[in-house]
Amino acid sequence: MAADLPRTAALEVLRAVRSSDAYTNLALPAALRRHGLSGRDAAFATELASGTIRRQGLYDAVLAACIDRPLAKVQARVLDALRLGTHQLLAMRVPPHAAIATTVSLVRSDVGPGAAGFANAVLRRVTEHDLDAWVELVAPDPADDRHGYLSVAHAHPRWVVDELARALGERAAPELEALLAADNEAPGVTLVARPGRSTRDELPGEQTRWSPYGVHLESGDPGSVPAVADGRAGVQDEGSQLVALALSAASVDGRDERWLDLCAGPGGKAALLAAIASGRGAGLVANERQVHRARLVAGALRGSSGVLGLVVADGTRPPYPAGSFDRVLVDAPCTGLGALRRRPEARWRRQPGDLRTLVPLQRALLSSALDLVRAGGVVLYATCSPVLAETAEVVSSVLGERHDVTLEDAAALLPGVPDCDGPLPGTFQLWPHRHRTDAMFGALLRRQ
């Protein structure tokens, strides 16, 4: 039986993520184009690749129960295919015979007949139970270890479950499982109309609840939307739109002419801010340290009239005079644990030790931004992570070192957004399970 193109494309994505540290959201479109997939075939390949990567931890636990040797001893190329087959058997509406036959065919053509026979035997063992039964068999007893159970059942590393519970605080008990389940849902595509360049009436789909510029694309390729193809609109989660809107809505004392996005890559927030700034007679400087990300920013800003410049520079040692900006956005590099719906590989790639590197960088970037904003101006510190070490603790640490800064009420800048209070008074925290957005955190600081 010949291996079909959607499954071949999905397998290529898994291998790129595993062996080359590729990002699913970048590897997947490339694989779809390479195999000429569209419509239902593209949707099938997308769910197969993304769903398998999201639930990899759970599927590995199932496969470990079906194989008589450690998974580390299984050839990596075979294990990738077994994960794809397991996802089809346990979480997709694929008949078992089709899931097994196509997976075996992939292994036979890629590795050989011996490995194909092994894959056939393993997947037949997987069919002995459904997903819920497998969870009960391979996960800890929730009465003894609730976080351990949720870690396996919802395919999140244990340390991530612990950090998300800390971030939820007193609401962890009733909401933690809903948050983990939301992380495993396939995200929709949200578009943003860049004001002054397009309107959301031009964009197909249902209007977003809180951003006045967004729509949820119901189906199809966003690149086929004329405003997106022209750069007058873009793809951007509503949570990211709200971050840019919060900074633009804050009051400043005196002039309001020069805005800065200190960590601008890949450019979505910079493009929205530049469009808003242009409508007010202001302009934006986009700063990005990494050259390849700066190229993405340049693409996002193409055609915008509200751009004062694009600079490749380290945000912790910026080439700008102190006090030279009226508004500054610090969308800091972070673990990305607030965007696990969109970046399914992040949960398996990130490690607790990453915080030891990221947190000092986040503090340095926020301190730098506060030096760059003038008295009476504002800085919005944002992360796509709800982890307290990256949110409340960074802000509290910087505030404790400076006497020229006050923490303002950023949550008030998101009128109508319910239940978004953050871990510090005045900060905001969005959540996938509450707001159907990425888990964006925001804190507004004013230079005195």
UniProtKB/TrEMBL annotation:
Residues 195-216 are annotated as: Disordered. Pfam families: Methyltr_RsmB-F, NusB. The active site is at 384 (nucleophile). S-adenosyl-L-methionine binds at residues 263-269, 288, 314, 331. GO terms for molecular function: RNA binding; RNA methyltransferase activity. May act as RNA methyltransferase. Belongs to the class I-like SAM-binding methyltransferase superfamily. RsmB/NOP family. This is rRNA cytosine-C5-methyltransferase. It comes from Nocardioides agariphilus.
